[in-house]
Design goal:
Helix content is 11%, strand content 26%. It is α/β, with parallel strands linked by helices. The relative contact order is 0.15.
Length: 151
Amino acid sequence: MGEAGARPSLLLYCQHVLGMGHLVRSLALAESLAARFHVVFLNGGPVPHGVPRPRCIDFIDLPPVGFDPAGRLVSRDGRRIYFTNALYTPWDEQFYPDGVRSWMVKLNAAPQGGMEIDPDFFVDFHDRPGGPARAHEVRLQNGDCTTEIFQ
């Protein structure tokens, strides 16, 4: 373990994209843990101006997630956009007592502009083993995701 009395290190990863709540909660947790640990905060999103970075924490900033001009998350190369109906999830039981089939589609974005639905890519999560399942934070091969894109 290193020198006597040295605090153990702790890596805390925060991937935040759609709002500040997750970031603010993670920073508060990291600051509390810094009393007992050497905290390294692996930051996976843009930090809004005015959000303080506690001095007792070491930060490593990853490249921010990519968005298109409409605010949708896009693949790292900017050629794919994945959509799910995951935003229904919080309301499913209240507004859709009979359920909502969860699905995911992919749009292909052309480098010269324009988009089209990929006719060979449609995932219906309703009939999956152990389902029905809801699509949320789906991670795909090569790092593409519906709600996050890891760099």
